[in-house]
Design a protein that fits this description.
two-stranded antiparallel ribbon; elongated; mainly alpha
């Protein structure tokens, strides 16, 4: 009986060891497959001049790997050896795959030396509806890159971050948002000024109302009158009359007089 019991015990142990061996084998196979897939994806990102078709393939394979692609995407984002367009798409895909969990990591790239990465970070955070990084968006309203400043403005507009209205208004006084005219004696407003004025209206920044009313009456601001008119309508809730600019000027002048506190 004892020998019988011993035989049964040894048989069960043998079967158990075979079972564990099978699990380990499957685990090792899975790890090898994952490593191979990551290596293949990384090679795609190493192509520094990808065509549109190749970029689509990068996107497809990254999304198919899902969470397994994350280590590769992070490596591409962090390394300057990869092409800008590849780092750009890696940033977007990380946000798409990981969702809001990726936001803290992606937000770090708003301070990246490359304007491409700052831009990619802003766009991805906007796609993720990240309102809590308003301080970073506001800081980038003063960025050296025109396109980054514009995107930071769009983030504040679309996320309706009214707390940063004053930062948007300050863009009107930033020399980076102007360029020298042909005679080099005067400066001209870039389109960013127009957008900033509209965003001030979208955010209903009432503190700008008085200044905007004065600007509406001054022909020096004729080139941005349309944006001033838009902003005043948003802030005041009033609609200027349809028609020529002069009719609108008179409307806002009368509005200003009627709302002056004596």
């Amino acid at each position: 009986m004892k020998l019988g019991h011993l035989f049964v015990t040894l048989l069960l142990l043998s079967m158990s060891m075979d079972s564990y061996g099978s699990i380990d084998s499957k685990k090792n196979k899975s790890q090898l497959e994952r490593a191979s897939a990551e290596k293949t994806l990384l090679r795609l990102y190493e192509n520094n001049n990808p065509s549109k078709t190749q970029l689509l393939e990068i996107k497809k394979q990254s999304l198919e790997l899902g969470g397994k692609a994350v280590p590769v995407l992070i490596e591409v984002m962090k390394s300057g050896k990869f092409a800008d367009k590849n780092r750009w798409i890696a940033t977007f895909l990380l946000g798409k795959i990981m969702g809001e969990k990726s936001a803290p990591f992606i937000a770090k790239f708003t301070e990246h030396p490359s304007w491409i990465m700052r831009m990619a970070s802003l766009k991805t955070l906007l796609a993720l509806n990240q309102e809590k990084y308003g301080d970073r968006y506001a800081a980038l309203l003063k960025d050296n890159s025109f396109i980054v400043r514009l995107q930071a403005l769009e983030n504040i507009r679309h996320l309706n971050l009214a707390n940063y209205s004053a930062n948007v208004w300050a863009m009107l006084y930033d020399k980076k948002n102007y360029y020298a005219s042909k005679d080099s004696k005067t400066s001209k407003r870039t389109n960013l000024i127009k957008e900033a004025i509209k965003v001030v209206g979208d955010l209903k920044f009432t503190k700008a109302q008085e200044a905007l009313l004065k600007m509406s009456a001054n022909k020096k601001y004729s080139d941005i009158f349309q944006e001033i008119d838009y902003s005043l309508e948003k802030i005041t809730g009033k609609k200027s009359p349809a028609g020529n600019v002069e009719a609108k000027r008179i409307f806002w002048k009368n509005f200003g007089i009627s709302n002056t506190v004596i």
